[in-house]
Each structure stands twice: as C-alpha cells, then as structure tokens.
Specification:
With about 200 residues, the chain is of the alpha+beta class. The chain is about 35% helix and about 20% strand. It folds into three domains: about 1-50, Winged helix-like DNA-binding domain superfamily/Winged helix DNA-binding domain (Arc Repressor Mutant, subunit A, Orthogonal Bundle); about 60-130, Alpha-Beta Plaits (2-Layer Sandwich); about 150-195, Ribosomal Protein L24e, Chain: T. Helix 2 crosses helix 3. InterPro entries: ArsR-like_HTH, AsnC-type_HTH_dom, HTH-Siroheme_Decarb, TRASH_dom, TRASH_HVO_1752, Tscrpt_reg_AsnC-like, WH-like_DNA-bd_sf, WH_DNA-bd_sf.
C-alpha cells in the first residue's frame, strides 16, 4: 500500500523524472538514500515501469503528426493494437470499450491509411479516420487525491502490507499473499511446460 510520501514522490517524478533524490528528499522530509529506496520499491512493485524521454517531435520535423481512429471488429482489437504498438512513428496506442484503436503518430507519409494497412491486417478494420494534429500535450499528473492500490494477479484482492511481488518472465506481478503467488507460479509453469 502506498502512503502519502510515495504519492508525493510519484508526483515530483512525474513533473521531472530527472529531479535529484536530494531535492525530492527535501520536499518529502527524507534523506536521498531513503528516497532511492522508495523509488526502488515503486519500481519493484511495477508502479514505476520506466523513466522515459518526452520528445517534441515537431522540433525534429519527422513525419506528419496524426491522430488515427480505427473501428475494429471485436476479435481483431488485440491484433491491431499489437501491430500498431510496434510500428515506427507511433507514440501512443489506446483501445476503447467500443472496439476502437486510437493512435497518435508521426506518419512517414501523408497517405496515412496506406501506411497503416501496409503494417496491419485490414480484415478486422471496419473504418479508419485520420486527423492532422496541430499540437499535443501529455499531462500526466499524480495528486494527493490519487488512490493507488495494487491488485493481486491471482485472486483480484487488494495487495496490502503482507503482499509480495515476483518478476515472472520480465514482468513484475503483485500478489496479496504467498499462497496466491505459489498458485500463480505453479499455473504459469504448467502452461509453459505444456507449450514445450
């Protein structure tokens, strides 16, 4: 469970991921090593997945900035999302409950539909809408009213102070207890063994 100090550390890192731990420590009344320990804990729990660079591609003049909305048949949403996620120039990929896949991208050509269909199976796509973007802001915020709660990947319960995490095939998985961890790992190993 995250406390108010964790939430404040997340908020400060969201504003500037390169902010020194000494500066964060002054703001949250902790020593730099204590801040480092908390950031490591947030990474181990999978709350902080990575520190990234936010490029203003308009300054780089690479491609045409577009917002593309694809209406997709329900059985094709995941396939289309995966194909677009790996495509050069795609910055964000969103899926909606209504069966749409929405991307922001810097397309290498002005014929955006052809570019998309060159890399994505067109069968599940029902409609494509392309809009030219004139600007974009990514405003990720963490404030004091944000509630964070990890959910056990095995049973769906909230992960409390007795919870554990385990890295499985490169991903951090949270568990509410050791029993759920053992059940999940056993099922994972059984599936992996069956795949061989």
């Amino acid at each position: 469970m995250l406390d108010d100090t964790d939430v404040e550390i997340l908020r400060l890192l969201t504003e500037d991921a390169r902010r020194p731990y000494s500066e964060i420590g002054e703001r949250v009344d902790l020593s730099p090593p204590a801040v480092s320990d908390r950031v490591s804990k947030l990474q181990n729990h999978g709350i902080i997945r990575r520190f990234t660079l936010d490029l203003d591609r308009s300054q780089l003049r690479q491609g045409t900035p577009v917002l593309v909305t694809l209406s997709v048949a329900p059985d094709g949403v995941e396939r289309v999302r995966e194909a677009l996620s790996g495509l050069d120039g795609v910055e964000h990929v969103f899926t909606t409950a209504g069966g749409q896949v929405v991307i922001t991208a810097h397309a290498p050509t002005t014929d955006v539909a052809s570019w998309v269909f060159e890399h994505v199976d067109s069968d599940p796509i029902r409609e494509i809408d392309v809009e030219l973007l004139t600007g974009a802001d990514w405003n990720l915020q963490v404030d004091g009213d944000t509630d964070f709660a990890l959910t056990c990947v095995e049973c769906g319960n909230e992960v409390g102070a007795d919870g554990v995490t385990r890295r499985i095939d490169g991903d951090v998985k949270p568990f509410c207890c050791g029993s759920c961890e053992r059940l999940y790992v056993q099922r994972y190993e059984d599936i992996a063994e069956g795949a061989d």
